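Quick one, probably user error.
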């Protein structure tokens, strides 16, 4: 919602914090969106966690920002000074490690520091350093895997989704779950995402030229964008540049954004998406059905494709309730004129049921796991349709 509104929220949060404090308690803003509360004579762990609960309750009613209701989800780390003192620095480090633990457990909760957390926090710092270093020359350690999207009815490959991996020198091949959240937290997702965009377009361009030679129809390339990238003013320019350098047409590029990223509703996101769509780039809502958002945003947002989350797809052939949810989601997509893609299709039963209820596209281990470029290239150019192994 912009910097000024963000500052306004911080002021409001500070005010609420102050009103939750009791005499002898001190609050300070540490930087960014981090606050510290110092409680003397906290009454041990019980007293300290009670105080954390009190603060969380104080922050839970919605904030009114320019007439809009906004909720915050505080993550609280609790650290207790050892008998006899300890150092302020040590106490803060422990509170920080506990706060990360609270975030990792799903935010909007508190965690009390335990010695094991120090190692986790050191590990995070080390990983962040590694990430910065690796981004100095992203071609060296980052890889893109590609997972086909197929026509559910006949298994013909319609496109690919690019999924990032990190060939970490000490830890081996890391899936995005192990570093994308950290990249988002630190802002490093911006340079990483830029590399992903360029590399996915480059690969799509290479396959495109071979496909033309083989007389095959064009395939789409889907790239994941994080909320942070969507807020970058240079995004549209970066997309134009990646397309230009690769020779891929805008209508063969799909940008995937999760509903939670969109619901944040930063004022620049919608015009940016509109701008990209005017060029012909397509926009997909990723993991639809996995979040808690309202449906009303679907009407307002410039999108083309709805990717139904695995939680909606799983078991729809076995359970009437699951089937009802999946068919309603498909009906919604149809009514809004959006293309539907079923994600995480794992079984023949799921695939057959999806075809029966009229879902056009699917993606999942049933057809193919995400694969390195060489292997995926065989699908891009090889005999179609895919014959599932299961
Ligand atoms: P996503 O965009 O929803 O990608 C689909 C994820 O589902 C992939 O996990 C894929 O391997 C997995 N998947 C595919 N088929 C099946 C199936 O049949 N069953 C099950 N259980 N899972 C299946 P992956 O590659 O680990 O990626 C996880 C998430 O990380 C992605 O979810 C996406 O949100 C994020 N991510 C991946 N690459 C990027 C990237 O370049 N940029 C950003 N911002 N996020 C990325
Ligand atoms: Mg995706
Ligand atoms: Mg998804």
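Nope, works fine. Designed sequence:
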């Amino acid at each position: 919602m912009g910097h000024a509104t963000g500052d306004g929220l911080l002021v409001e949060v500070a005010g609420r914090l102050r009103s939750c404090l009791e005499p002898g308690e001190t609050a300070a803003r540490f930087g960014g969106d981090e606050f510290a509360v110092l409680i003397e004579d906290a009454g041990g762990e019980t007293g300290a966690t009670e105080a954390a609960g009190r603060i969380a309750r104080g922050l839970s009613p919605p904030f009114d920002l320019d007439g809009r209701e906004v909720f915050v989800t505080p993550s609280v780390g609790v650290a207790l000074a050892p008998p006899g003192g300890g150092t302020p620095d040590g106490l803060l480090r422990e509170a920080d490690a506990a706060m990360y633990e609270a975030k990792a457990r799903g935010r909007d909760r508190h965690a009390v520091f335990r010695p094991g957390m120090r190692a986790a926090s050191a590990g995070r710092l080390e990983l962040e350093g590694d990430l910065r270093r690796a981004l100095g020359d992203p071609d060296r350690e980052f890889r893109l895997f590609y997972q086909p999207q197929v026509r559910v009815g006949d298994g013909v490959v319609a496109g690919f989704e690019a999924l990032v991996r990190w060939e970490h020198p000490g830890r081996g091949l890391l899936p995005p779950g192990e570093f994308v959240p950290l990249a988002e937290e630190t802002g490093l997702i911006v340079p990483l995402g830029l590399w992903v965009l360029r590399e996915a377009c480059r690969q799509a361009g290479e396959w495109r030229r071979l496909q033309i030679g083989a007389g095959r129809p064009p395939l789409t390339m889907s790239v994941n964008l994080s909320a942070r990238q969507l807020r970058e003013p240079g995004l549209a320019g970066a997309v134009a540049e990646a397309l230009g350098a690769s020779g891929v047409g805008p209508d063969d590029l799909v940008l995937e954004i999760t509903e939670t990223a969109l619901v944040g509703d930063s004022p620049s996101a919608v015009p940016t998406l509109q701008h990209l769509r005017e060029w012909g780039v397509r926009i997909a809502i990723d993991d639809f059905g996995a979040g808690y958002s309202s449906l009303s945003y679907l009407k307002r947002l410039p999108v083309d494709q709805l990717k139904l989350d695995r939680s909606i797809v799983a078991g729809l052939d076995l359970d009437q309730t699951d089937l009802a949810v999946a068919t309603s989601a498909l009906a919604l997509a149809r009514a809004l004129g959006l293309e539907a893609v079923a994600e995480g299709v794992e079984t023949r039963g799921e695939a057959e049921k999806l075809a029966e209820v009229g879902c056009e596209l699917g993606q999942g281990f049933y057809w193919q796991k995400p694969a390195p470029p060489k292997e995926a290239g065989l699908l891009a150019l090889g005999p179609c349709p895919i014959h599932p192994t299961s």
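The radius of gyration is 24 Å.
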